[in-house]
Amino acid sequence: MRELVFATNNQHKTQEVRNLLLNDYKVLNLNDIGCTTDIPETGSTFAENATLKSSYVTEHYQLDCFADDSGLEIEALNQEPGIFSARYSGVKDDQVNLNLVLQKMEGQANRKARFRTVISLMRGTENFLFEGIINGTILERPIGTQGFGYDPIFVPDGYNQTFAEMSMEQKNQISHRALAMKKLISFLKEQKPV
Ligand code: IMP
């Protein structure tokens, strides 16, 4: 069976994709291929960062690979935190970063935001991009304890709960990451491995 690398160290994410591609691909993660490099994410867009990760693996391991990059984009903050979502305040601390967003949004009437994921699939020398977006609103105070990152302050359009009030199953049906992943999976299933 054709091998495909998911450029992640997250075992949970890997298992999810493995289940979806069970009969089509043998899905390996960075740990499985012995890649311990902290692949630099120096791009200025989600697509660039995802492509840096996928192409690193393809170049160094001669294996097809996909990688994802995500973040929160807030209209009133010129689409920040964007690619800086994980370290918006300078530190990788979800609580501190969420508080910085709330502080910057104080008194702001326009509370429109979106979560966005871009997946890059490197197949040989070809790069295919898949995008998932979910629009929503930023609250003034956090609500809910599930999830991670900015989940407690984000209410997706059409719902009256934050991502942090939803079960993981519920969030996984509608999230930006799930939408991008669905596009990737249907592309991989349509295409015969070459
Ligand atoms: P990653 O590219 O999936 O690692 O996401 C980068 C950062 O974006 C995370 O560290 C979070 O701060 C934020 N983020 C991405 N997806 C989500 C989400 O589903 N909920 C909350 N925050 C997220």
The gyration radius over C-alpha positions equals 17 Å
Order of secondary-structure elements: EHEHEEHEEEHH
| Bulk shape | globular
| Ligand names | inosinic acid
3D structure, described in words:
The chain is of the alpha/beta class and 194 residues long. It has one domain (2-190): Alpha-Beta Complex (Maf protein), CATH 3.90.950.10. The protein has 5 helices and 7 strands; from the N terminus they run βαβαββαβββαα. Strands 1, 2, 3, 4, 5, 6 and 7 form a 7-stranded mixed beta sheet that branches. The longest helix has 16 residues, at 46-61. Inosinic acid is lined by residues 69-72, 85-86, 115, 147-151, 163, 175.
Kindly list the characteristics that best describe this protein.
globular; binds inosinic acid; 194 residues; alpha/beta; 5 helices; Maf protein; seven-stranded mixed sheet
